Amino acid sequence: RRTPSASVGAVRYLNLHEYQSAQIMKDSGVNVPFGIAAHTVEEAVEAAKTIGDDDVVIKSQILAGGRGLGKFTNGLQGGVHIIDTKEVEDYASKMLGGTLVTKQSGPAGKPVNTVLLAKKMNLVKEFYFAIMLDRSSGGPVIIACSEGGTSIED
Fold first, then answer.
1. Ramachandran sector of residue 109 (left: φ over 0; alpha: ψ -120 to 50; beta: rest)
2. How many whole angstroms separate alpha carbon 78 and alpha carbon 131?
3. Residue 64 near residue 99 (C-beta atoms within 8 A)
4. Residue 153 pLDDT > 90, yes or no?
5. Does the predicted TM-score (pTM) go above 0.85?
6. How far apart are CA 117 and CA 38, in angstroms?
7. What share of the chain is helix, strand, coil (3-state, %, to 5)?
8. More confident residue, 131 or 67
9. What are the b/e assignments for 29-38, b being 16+ CB within 10 Å?
10. What is the residue-wise DSSP string for 94-112?
11. 88-95 helix and 41-51 helix, angle to the nearest 10 degrees
């Protein structure tokens, strides 16, 4: 009788939101932008106050790429916004509990139960780095690019 290989046909349940991945990296000594996850509008407003800047980034947390160019079923365009701190309550109320449709989510979209409030960074250059699961080999694949930004996954 053959014993199945761990790398062939293995079932993996590793689905992490951006805020969860950032926390793991931070706990491992990687420098990541400051951010606070919020599950309610009130938590989002408090997170923006804690960040303390005039502008913040508010990011929908769903398990699909293309959030920045996505569209909510309630009409809000984009799942990632740089906004004035005074606008956090308005944006969070439109995003939390909403459904975000992206190129990767499928036409039904994904529910947004969490938003990440992050410190706005003044970037000189963006890079892209990902560790993804290659389903054909059952192992990790590292993807790196000297350019980053919206639509990098395309």
1. left
2. 25
3. no
4. no
5. no
6. 7
7. 25, 25, 50
8. 67
9. eeebeebbbb
10. HHTT-EEE-TTT-TT-EE-
11. 140
